[in-house]
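Weekly puzzle thread! Below is a chain. First person to post its structure in token form gets bragging rights.
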Amino acid sequence: MGKGDRKTRRGKISSASYGNSRPKSAKAPTAAVKKPAAAKPAAKKAAPVKKPAAKKEG
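Winning reply:
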């Protein structure tokens, strides 16, 4: 099994052919190919509430 074996994926790649071991288009994505679920963005902390400046009477 290797580059000369036309029944294996590596052999299909080296001989530039397609078949069961190397389909032209993927029928369904496999578990290894799937991307992990989109990570939720970190929740932003609310900005601290600013207290109004003390008014000077005068």
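Puzzle host: Confirmed. Bonus trivia for everyone else. Residues 2 and 50 are 70 Å apart (CA to CA).
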